[in-house]
Amino acid sequence: MFKKVLIANRGEIAVRIIRACRELGLHTVAVYSTADKNALHAKIADEAVCIGPAPSKDSYLNMKAIIAACEVTQADAIHPGFGFLSENADFARMCGKCGIKFIGPKPESIEMLGDKAQAKETMKEAGVPVIMGSDGAVKNIDYAFDLAGKIGYPVMVKASAGGGGRGIRIVRSEDELESQIEAAKQEAQACFGNDEIYIEKFIENPKHIEIQILADEHGNVIHLGERDCSMQRRNQKVLEETPSPIMTEELRERMGKSAVDAAKACGYVNAGTIEFLVDKHGDYYFMEMNTRIQVEHPITEAVTGVDLVKEQLLIAMGKELSYKQEDIKLTGHAIECRINAENPKLNFRPSPGLIKSLHIPGGFGVRIDTAVYQGYEIPPYYDSMIGKLIVYAHTREEAIAKMTWALSEFIVDGVQTNIDFQLALIRSEGFIKGDYDNGYLSRAELKY
Q: Which residues are CB-neighbours of 203 under 8 A, at least 6 positions away?
């Protein structure tokens, strides 16, 4: 049992975790960089510790500084949120060695699932459908040419240690293969410090469907339905919804079972997400597993009534899951729009700066997860997402209508945002019909 949780993150997810801790009577410690001295998470936590200068590598990625903050404040647990150190096995292992509870999976699970090639092999052994591709990392160019020829172009070259859409290249012909492999390796080395890549068959126009799971330390694993994350720009999620417009009860049951089998196969504990690609025939394939809470977790909370962050904390305390599989019922429809400080008309260029005025929408079924406030200055050093707008309604049509007026009421003065872009997206014919896939935004001509 732990009593004081240090949140090794910033922004809206740090605020979200602080609030969940408070509901469980847990003391909270925020960490912040010098650029975040006026950040909301640093203001509302019970204690706050500065861990370094603005660059992430010197603060939010500084493992020693974060562990030192635990020692100074006597925090006995760490919640990593998402991004930064949330999927760093070395950090999870360091926490354990220092007697600090890491609120997440075991380091061994993070390590194995963080290596995409190794994760794929584990899923194959567990009977989870996987996409045809290389057995582990590609060791030489001759093997790459031979494999791509066998499975057929187009193929995807992907970083083994990748994530967030980085280190990915689509190769449509043999002439492109070697140059695209080299480009992917260079990006992977720069982003992850690991240039290993693997190759798999590229599925044309798939749907990106992920399954949320919870697993406790007693061997209990459940799934909480799906999230449709197909609305993406350059492999980055823009909008998510649940249930998916393509989902049937039969497909959900099969995918849910595969997700549970996947979690059990790697001895997984805590919250996690299994990501699948679904083709036009309704066949699905394992893509990767995210060993952390997801940005889009609120829409699952809306349709299931399960507080995922509180469940993470309870699982880490050694408690059994509060729910059994038969308790999970999906009711209604939820949509999340990621609100970013960026200028869509200038190729989505980040737009840091002072928020001069702010009006946040509200009302029944409207939720805002954010850490910004009027007078807050968005720093230029971090991700451009400033909040998440979530709506819930009885039907998908009602949820779309609710999101439309909620976006229309959302006003941020002083910086550029993607609100008008999201409004155009939610009004687009493809989205309204539920007829969209991973490539929709690259084809759609949105007017905003």
A: 131, 277, 279, 285
